[in-house]
Design a protein that fits this description.
This protein is an alpha/beta fold. The chain is built from 15 helices and 13 strands. Strand 4, helix 4 and strand 5 form a beta-alpha-beta unit.
C-alpha cells in the first residue's frame, strides 16, 4: 500500500477535466492505497473527493503568485511532514511549483509525478528547473502531449503516455425508452425528428462551442430545421447569449446548466461535439459521449483526433471553422451517415480502447515503479503509446 496525495489548483464549483481525472483515480485506488486530495477551498474537486469514502481532503489555496505562496507552502509542508506520502501527483503549474517548494530539503521527500493535461506552451527554463528540483516522472494524457514533452527537459525525468479512460459500465448507451425520457426532460416534446447536437465539454471560450451555433445558423432554413444545439457547463456569457439571439437561434439552442452527472444529458443527444481551439488535449467529454454510444465531431486540434476513426465513429473538422462544420451538417441532414451505426462503432471503440481499467492500472504502474523500483531499473519505460 502507498500513501498518495493528489493536488490541483482549480478554484470554483465547475467540474473540470482535472477534477474528473483526479476523482476517478482516487475512487478507483482508495481500496488499494491511502488516498488524500489537496485543492483550493470550495472547489469542485474537494466536493467530489469528500464524497468518496476513506479519501482525506485538505483545503489549500495553491497559487503561482509569489506573494501568495508562503502560507499555502507552509500548510503543504506541514502536511507532507505529517503524512510522509510516498507519491504526490500534481496536475497543474501552480500546485506543481508549490509541491516542489514545500518538499525541498525534507528528510523523506515524496516522489513527484506531474500530469500534463493541456496544450499550453511549455517553458524550457521552467521545465529544466522543475525537473532539477524534484519532478520524478511525467504523465502525458495523449500522444500529442508526449511529443511536446519529449522536446523539453521533462524527458530526462521519464515520460509515460497514460490515456484518459472512462468507466464503460457507468458511461453506456441508454435504451430507447430511457433516452426518449431524458430527451423530453431536457428539451420537451417539440424536438421530435430533429438531430440534437450536444456537448458536455464545457462552455469556456476555448471550447469554441459557439462555432456549432454559428454553423447551424449558416445552413439553409430547411436544413437548419433539422438540428438543435445543446450544451452543458458553466454559465453562458451575455455576449454569447446576445449572439445567439442575433443569429435567430434561440429556438434551436438549449443550455442545460452545470451537471455533476452528465449521463442523462448525453442520452438525450444524437451527435456529440468538442470544438476546442486551444488548451484541450484528449477530452474526457469526448470519450464519455463515445462510450455512451454517440458519434462525436471534434476539431483538428492537439490530441482530439486521436479519439476518432474518421467517418466511422465520428468526424474531424478544422478548428475555428463554422463553414466546415456547416458543410458536414449538410451531409448529416441529407442522411449520408448512419448515426445509429456510428454510435455503435463509438461504443465499440470506447470498450476496446478507452476503458478506465488501462487508465487506472497505467497510472498506478507509474507510482509503483517509482516507489518500488526493480533492481537495476533507473527510470520508467514509457507505455500506452
Amino acid at each position: 500500500m502507498m500513501k498518495i496525495l493528489y493536488t490541483n489548483f482549480h478554484v470554483g464549483p465547475n467540474v473540470s477535466g482535472h477534477a474528473i481525472y483526479i476523482s476517478r483515480l482516487a475512487q478507483n485506488l482508495v481500496g488499494r492505497h491511502s488516498i488524500s486530495v489537496a485543492a483550493p477551498p470550495g472547489c469542485a474537486l474537494l466536493r467530489l473527493a469528500a464524497d468518496i469514502p476513506n479519501v482525506s481532503t485538505y483545503p489549500i489555496a495553491f497559487s503561482s503568485r509569489f506573494y501568495r505562496m508562503p502560507t499555502p507552502a507552509r500548510q503543504l509542508r506541514a502536511l507532507l511532514e505529517l503524512e510522509n506520502f510516498d507519491v504526490v501527483h500534481v496536475n497543474g503549474s501552480a500546485d506543481h511549483k508549490l509541491v516542489i517548494l514545500a518538499s525541498l530539503f525534507l528528510k523523506r521527500r515524496p516522489k513527484i509525478v506531474f500530469t500534463k493535461h493541456n496544450d499550453q506552451p511549455i517553458s524550457a527554463l521552467s521545465a529544466r528547473i522543475r525537473t532539477w528540483l524534484g519532478t520524478d516522472h511525467v504523465i502525458a494524457v495523449c500522444d500529442h502531449v508526449r511529443r511536446k514533452l519529449a522536446k523539453t527537459a521533462y524527458a530526462s525525468a521519464g515520460i509515460s503516455t497514460v490515456f484518459n479512460g472512462v468507466d464503460t459500465k457507468v458511461f453506456r448507451p441508454f435504451n430507447e425508452k430511457e433516452g426518449s425520457g431524458m430527451r423530453a426532460r431536457y428539451f420537451g416534446r417539440e424536438l421530435a425528428g430533429r438531430i440534437v447536437l450536444g456537448s458536455n465539454a464545457g462552455t469556456g471560450d476555448y471550447k469554441s462551442w459557439m462555432d456549432m451555433v454559428r454553423a447551424v445558423a449558416r445552413l439553409p432554413l430547411i436544413e437548419r430545421e433539422t438540428f438543435h444545439v445543446a450544451v452543458a457547463g458553466g454559465p453562458i456569457s451575455s455576449a454569447d447569449l446576445a449572439e445567439i439571439r442575433g443569429l435567430g437561434m434561440e429556438g434551436r439552442f438549449s443550455y442545460v446548466g452545470m451537471l455533476d452527472d452528465v449521463r442523462p444529458f448525453i442520452s438525450a443527444i444524437d451527435v456529440g461535439f468538442v470544438l476546442s481551439h486551444r488548451v484541450e488535449t484528449i477530452s474526457f467529454a469526448c470519450r464519455e459521449m463515445m462510450a455512451s454510444g454517440k458519434p462525436v465531431i471534434v476539431t483538428e486540434y492537439a490530441g482530439l483526433p486521436e479519439n476518432i476513426a474518421r467517418d466511422k465513429d465520428g468526424w474531424v473538422v478544422p478548428s475555428r471553422s463554422p463553414d466546415s462544420i456547416a458543410s458536414l451538417l449538410t451531409q448529416i441532414s441529407q442522411r449520408k451517415f448512419d448515426l445509429s451505426a456510428m454510435g455503435v462503432e463509438a461504443r465499440r471503440k470506447a470498450e476496446a480502447e478507452f476503458d478506465h481499467v488501462d487508465f487506472i492500472q497505467g497510472t498506478q504502474r507509474v507510482y509503483v515503479e517509482l516507489v518500488f523500483p526493480a533492481p537495476g531499473c533507473h527510470e520508467l519505460s514509457g507505455f500506452g503509446g
